Amino acid sequence: MALDLQKVTQAIGKTGFKLEFEIGNILRLNGWHLISNRCYIDDLEGTVREIDLLAYKVNIVEGISIYTVIIVSCKKSEANAWALLSRPIEQNDPNANWRPFKGWSNHPAIDYYLSKMTWAAAYHEKLSNICPSLFSPPSVDVFAFQEISKANHTCQNDKNIFSSITSLMKAQAYEMSILDKRQANTKRYYQFNLVSVIDSEIARVYFNGDSIETSSIKSEDYLCRYILNEREEVARIKFVTAEAFSGALEEYSTLHQGNCKIVAEHYQDFYADAYKQGPKARMLLGDFNKLVKPAIISSLLRNRRSLDGFGDVSLFWFGSRNLLQIEIDYKFSDFETLELLNSDKQLSKRLETILADVYQYHGDFEIDEHIPF
């Protein structure tokens, strides 16, 4: 019996694959790079999972590759609509995190800010002005969901909705877990967003006191709380209808521009005083020592000086003299050796380059002994 190709086309058209293809095309046409059918191993369940679509935009700012990432789940249902059950939002709920941030960077200047507890709130405050639908607090608190039959308006279950949510948050967790293993020599910044696209209708079922109101909507935000590696995590997922996806995507493009601007601003802020004593200076001391210690050792060898007692190098900002001191271990230093190092023009030129590369410092400096009190 011959295969009816027209019926094959019709059958595939009723699946989510057509939706996935269409959403992928929209992303590409709007300048997003696309990765589809990306598979990974779910460590908790030991099964292979697939990410429908992973899209990203990337620009290089201050030598940092800035990635704005959207992980997309695509679902299609001709028979059912999605009902999102919600209640009034409690902005001051101590157990709620309405403004989660999912991002990562291996650049010390950016990681310095990402590691602060105040980062997520400050980030949302800035981005909510240009991307209000993405970073303003949700207008309602979605606490449950159901698929509703379009034919008889009965509740089915939440299986497909829950599947979309879990696939998104696990995909995000996986992608973030492997970032430090990629392109180790490239400085990068990532910011993640989760989108669940449904080729059907979305209804908001709003519970408020004794009343229940149902309205048709194009998109809704859901704050998903889950436990991952024994830590509580919060992911913000945007539900959006397929027909509204193109309009929603415009704000994600604006978001990428905002990410580039924020990284540039924090990069400049970090290096404005990174050379001074404090957490910023200490963050860079490892990289600084890797470069400056060989330079000092070369100078000592050229001048036939002993290497005994040579330890790590630190920095001290001499504010009254507007001078940066490169301090060497006190066990090693003496006046004659310090004078030799400070008069070594080859060493001075090398240290000038290292200070510019690591701390972006271009002022005066000298080598001195480190006094541990």
State the main characteristics:
373 residues, 10 helices, 2 domains, GMP Synthetase, Chain A, domain 3, 33% strand, 37% helix, alpha/beta, four-stranded mixed sheet
Give a structural overview:
By secondary structure, the protein is of the alpha/beta class. Helices cover 37% and strands 33% of the residues. It is built from ten helices and 14 strands. Strands 1, 2, 3, 5, 7, 10 and 11 form a seven-stranded mixed sheet that branches. The protein has a four-stranded mixed sheet with strand order 6-4-8-9, covered by helices on one side. A three-stranded mixed sheet has the order 12-13-14. Strand 12 and strand 13 (323-328) form a beta hairpin. The longest helix has 27 residues, at 245-271. The radius of gyration is 28 Å and the shape is elongated. The model has no long low-confidence stretch (mean pLDDT 89).
Q: What is the average of the pLDDT values? A: 89
Helix content: 25-40%
Query: Major β-sheet, in short?
Result: 7 strands, mixed
- Radius of gyration (Å): 28 Å
Per DSSP E runs of 2 or more residues, the count of β-strands stands at: 14
Helix segment tally? 10
- CA distance, first residue to last residue: 91 Å
Helical/strand content category: alpha/beta
Overall morphology: elongated
Quote the beta fraction.
25-35%
What's the helix-strand series? HHEEEEEHHHEHEEEEEHHEEHHE
Structural domain count? 2
Low-confidence stretches: none
